[in-house]
Amino acid sequence: AGEEITDEYALFMFGVGMPLTCSREGCRGTITVDDLALNGDHWDGQIQAALRFVRAVPQPLWPYLDTVSQEQVDLYLDTGVGYPSVHTLRPDSPQ
């Protein structure tokens, strides 16, 4: 309770930059069109580290995740394979 949900806008803002107004320490202040290419590997590492806790921490939003995504998470947690990199979110990414 009382926790803030955050996301990385650069994962959704392809080809568009924008200023950020955030109070989080380390906020970079701007989204650029190159953020995904520059930071994607780091973000993948952060996501993979967080996924280790999915089964140990209550996930109240889990029911809103589509079945295919739930299965992908389960596969990754069970086998360590199948993690879809954030780089695949780019519209010009080979799928």
User: How many separate domains make up the residues?
Assistant: 1
The chain-level mean pLDDT equals 88
Q: Describe the biggest sheet?
A: 2 strands, antiparallel
Residue share in helix: 25-40%
- Give me the side-by-side strand order of the main sheet: 1-2
Poorly predicted parts: none
Q: Output the helix-strand order.
A: EEHH
* SS element count, helices: 2
Structural class: mainly alpha
Could you say which overall geometry the principal axes of the C-alpha atoms support?
globular
Number of strands: 2
What gyration radius follows from the Cα positions, in whole Å? 15 Å
* Beta-strand percentage range: under 5%
CA distance, first residue to last residue: 37 Å
Quick structural gist:
By secondary structure, this protein is mainly alpha-helical. Helix content is 32%, strand content 4%. The longest helix has 17 residues.
